[in-house]
Design goal:
With about 475 residues, the protein is mainly α. The protein contains 13 helices and six strands. The two termini are about 30 Å apart.
Length: about 475
């Protein structure tokens, strides 16, 4: 990746928020000095169509800020309970799973910590960056940061395998601690040997391809393709196939679709209704008779039946890790920690917090943190999604406070400008510029800098099952 100065992002914009509309836009405009413009991108003239979706760039900036903030809050909160509870099968046994009554109580040791609770918090509670200090990156945020940076500096909408490989090799440490595990680590090892995606996820080369990795590093591509899941899948294809194939790939695509669909549909509906509609649409990507489809249908069915989230979680554990239903046979393979890093069980766990959280940011993070397994990953995914949907202002309202806006990518990655210190505002602006290019080049849409809106052509394509 090329270096880029943070001083590049000096423009601010503060116009009235503009709601999304398919056929009509507000006539209010914003002064050019307030509108972010990428001087290295050629904005072409565009004649809007009556069927175009119209989205405010200013509102999207606030939402992208909310994505990074919400993901960071949820990630660091979920880390408190990461791998505390994985069940009682195999050599590692962690006892009964947490329940809602454990929120606010002492954290219990995880599978690596011996008798020690989390160093982040002695109790199971929200974790925030201290005032004046940056949020630290983690494996749930740093690869997404790197991909956004790559897209912007390479001036492309679709990353090639070589661009991905070169980015990983430049920005990830070869020595430990490099914050890579399972499939990410194996893919990185392959890159050091000259392999590039998609060869880095080929099951012949990477036996860890079924692990969780891609579903926590690629959701952001859905945000670069608002209302257009077809384009989102195109953008995310190679980044997902950097580490995932088959079921783990379809699961990762499910998350990308959720992020793209967050800008679509009736924005006036209650959050819980919007979440269910989005999830059912994304479900179409999961092939029938696959275990991700079975997990989705099972968890949703228990939720609609009024079963508590704790009972549903216990039934998920029994159904998939004890009985190995729907073809989920990882227990029989005698993997370390019974596959606690696997894409499947963590997907099922994430669906519990998604459905039972009902679009409530706090509740979703709480359930995700208490659900078990790799708990920081589902929390980060849904914290980022819900944070995007309600934006920076919505998050501050939910928690009744403001938060640090700085981000330290060099906690886990290397060779970024500014000694690795960025801000959510700059990160959101970069995301807007990436989306400008995607809308113009991949969708054939337009950017109106006078009105500060995007025109996004409608798509008639249905979401088809993965192959």
């Amino acid at each position: 990746m090329k270096t880029i100065s943070l001083l590049f992002f000096t423009v601010l914009f503060t116009s009235q928020l503009m709601s999304c509309s398919r056929t009509q836009e507000t006539t209010q405009t914003t002064s050019n000095a307030e509108i972010p413009v990428n001087p290295d991108f050629e904005y072409k003239n565009y004649t809007p169509k009556s069927t175009d979706r119209i989205i405010s760039r200013e509102n999207y900036l606030n939402q992208l800020y909310g994505f990074w903030l919400g993901e960071s809050i949820a990630n660091w909160t979920g880390l408190v309970t990461e791998m505390d509870k994985i069940g009682t099968i195999g050599e590692i046994k962690t006892g009964d799973f947490y329940t809602r009554t454990d929120w606010g109580k002492p954290d219990q040791p995880n599978i690596w910590s011996g008798t020690n609770p989390s160093h982040l918090s002695p109790t199971i509670d929200f974790v925030f960056a201290k005032d004046g200090e940056p949020w630290g990156s983690d494996d749930d945020t740093d690869i997404e940061y790197m991909y956004q940076y790559l897209l912007f500096t390479e001036k492309t909408s679709v990353l090639s395998g070589e661009q991905i490989k070169n980015g990983w090799l430049k920005h990830i440490k070869k020595e430990e601690e490099n914050y890579l595990w399972v499939s990410n680590q194996k893919a990185f090892d392959l890159m050091t040997q000259g392999y590039a995606p998609p060869a880095t996820s080929d099951p012949i080369n990477n036996p860890e391809f079924e692990m969780i990795d891609a579903q926590l590093t690629t959701e952001i591509f859905g945000l670069f393709a608002p209302t257009r899941p077809d384009v989102a899948l195109k953008l995310a294809h190679l980044p997902i196939q950097t580490t995932a194939r088959k079921e783990s790939e379809w699961i990762s695509e499910f998350y990308v679709l959720m992020y793209s669909l967050a800008s679509d549909g009736d924005q006036s509906l209650a959050m819980k209704n919007r979440i269910m509609i989005m999830a059912d649409q994304a479900r179409n990507r999961l092939p029938e008779n696959s275990y991700p489809a079975g997990m989705y249908d099972f968890v949703k069915g228990r939720f609609l039946a009024g079963i508590s989230w704790e009972q549903t979680r216990d039934e998920v554990y029994d159904r998939y890790q004890i009985q190995e239903k729907d073809g989920y046979n990882l227990t029989s393979r005698k993997l370390y920690c019974n596959g606690c890093f696997a894409a499947g069980i963590n997907f099922a766990s994430s669906l519990i917090s998604l459905f039972y959280g009902e679009g409530d940011l706090k509740e979703t993070i709480k359930i995700g943190s208490l659900c078990g397994w790799d708990s920081d990953n589902p929390t980060a995914t849904w914290g980022g999604l819900l944070g995007f949907m309600i934006g920076k202002d919505g998050i501050e309202k939910v928690f009744d406070r403001t938060f640090s806006d700085r981000f330290n990518i060099h906690r886990t990655r290397i060779n970024f400008p500014g000694d690795g210190i960025d801000s959510f505002e700059n990160m959101a602006k970069t995301g807007v510029f990436v989306t400008d290019q995607v809308i113009q080049e991949e969708m054939g849409g337009g950017v109106d800098l006078k009105k500060n809106v995007w025109y996004i052509p409608a798509s008639n394509g249905e979401i088809e099952p993965g192959k």
